[in-house]
Design brief:
Blueprint (H helix, E strand, L loop, with lengths): L4 E8 L10 H16 L8 E4 L15 H8 L5 E4 L8 H11 L5 E9 H4 L20 H4 L7 H16 L3 H15 L13 H6 L2 E3 L2 E2 L8 E10 H4 L7 E7 L18 H10 L11 E4 L6 H8 L8 H6 L16 H5 L5 H11 L13 E6 L6 E7 L1
Parallel strand pairs: 2-3, 2-4, 9-10
Antiparallel strand pairs: 1-7, 1-8, 4-7, 5-6, 8-11, 10-11
Helix pairs in contact: 10-11
Length: 389
């Protein structure tokens, strides 16, 4: 069932590593570009949404909240939301879609801003939950005694199990990393532009076995804004609206990384299955994909979750060239987070929208009209299906 909501504009700041720019400067730049993309002004924006809201538990991970952004941009909103506990980084987009569909707002500015690169030091790492805090609670406290403080450790466990069950190798993950680097070289906004060979990939230092340096996404400074509009309001925008065909946010397991009954699946499998129940479209109808790649191992999980191949078949699907440049189901055509830079999923959706509008220049997927996006790793996940009419 198609929602009464659409994406009408996207904008990204000039992202980079250790830019030294304030988060608000990045955000204002991204907002300006998104408004121009949609043909809207700040007076048209009456809603604002973000993930996860302002937080100080990890350096530079979420320095801005809805209130200060609303005030800095001079917005007069009648609806706002920050979603720290929901279907991953997709949450603010999903609640925005529901807000415009129910008349709470007409045009919602959804944003993600980070200064993780500039905020990191030798003792303060953005990838370490609770960095700088004396105590950790909840399920983190069970992982600390195992010295598993980083998500790279948890993803490494999953990769090890998946390798064992299905015979995947590091070379398969290397195909993901090197393929996305080729895409990045056609994207001027991507932070990693130098060539990446399989030899480079395999020779890089190990981070958390079997995941090496190029299996991990790249912390950056930057911001991304996506405008979600009511369907009738979207008709007056500058570009053809990208209708939100379906969304999925189901969670069918415990809220921990290590206690899911089948570690060769993630929350992605729950949310994607829920999404496909809400549309008549099928995986074969999809032209371009944005799949969360906080770590390379997430890409095969998402491919299987979304039904582009069977469980355990992703290694062959990848080896056949399906997801890289020229493939039938190109994934993360802007370079993804492995080469484009980590914007916690917002950058992936930005790229899918760019493709559906035919604005991706040298990396454009010819005739792209349906896109799928999945955000999240571990137990949290949100799925979205877009179509250009």
């Amino acid at each position: 069932m198609t929602m009464n909501a659409a994406i009408t504009g996207v904008g990204m700041s000039d992202i980079g590593r250790k830019t030294g720019r304030p988060a608000m400067a990045h955000l204002a730049e991204a907002a300006k570009r998104a408004l121009e993309c949609a043909g809207l002004t700040k007076e048209d924006i009456d809603g604002i949404s973000t993930y996860p809201g302002k937080a100080d538990n990890s350096p530079g991970m979420s320095p801005l909240g809805t209130g200060e952004v609303r005030n800095a941009l001079g917005l007069k909103t009648r609806w706002h939301s920050a979603v720290p506990d929901g279907p991953s980084q997709m949450a603010p987009l999903m609640v925005a879609a529901m807000a415009v569909a129910t008349g709470q707002a007409r045009h919602v500015l959804c944003f993600r801003a980070l200064t993780e690169s500039s905020s990191q030091t030798a003792t303060q790492r953005a990838s370490i939950p609770g960095a700088g805090r004396a105590r950790l609670g909840g399920w983190y406290s069970y992982l600390v005694p195992a010295n598993a403080m980083s998500a790279s450790n948890w993803a490494g466990w999953m990769a090890t199990r998946y390798f064992h069950e299905f015979g995947m190798t590091r070379e398969h993950l290397g195909m993901i990393a090197t393929g996305q680097r080729v895409f990045a070289q056609h994207n001027p906004a991507a932070v990693m532009q130098s060539p990446l060979t399989m030899e480079d990939y395999l020779g890089a230092r190990m981070i958390s076995s079997p995941l090496g340096l190029f299996d991990c996404d790249v912390p950056i400074d930057g911001a991304c804004v996506i405008i979600v509009s009511a369907a009738d309001a979207a008709k007056d925008c500058a570009r053809a609206p990208l209708t939100i065909e379906a969304m999925g946010a189901a969670l069918g397991s415990q809220e921990t990384w290590d206690q899911r009954p089948d570690l060769t699946t993630m929350g992605a499998h729950d949310s994607a299955a829920d999404m496909w129940k809400r549309t008549d479209l099928k995986p074969a109808d999809v032209d371009v994909l944005g799949l969360y790649d906080g770590f390379s191992i997430f890409v095969p999980y998402w491919l299987e979750a979304m039904g582009f191949c069977g469980h355990g078949e992703a290694k062959d699907f990848i080896a056949e060239g399906n997801i890289g440049p020229g493939g039938r189901f190109p994934v993360n055509t802007g370079g993804g987070q492995l080469s484009g830079g980590r914007l916690h999923g917002f950058g992936l959706l930005h790229e899918v929208c760019t493709q559906l509008w035919g604005q991706a220049d040298a990396r454009q997927v010819v005739g792209a009209s349906v896109g799928a996006c999945g955000m999240g790793g571990g137990f949290i996940a949100g799925s979205m299906l877009l179509r250009r009419d």
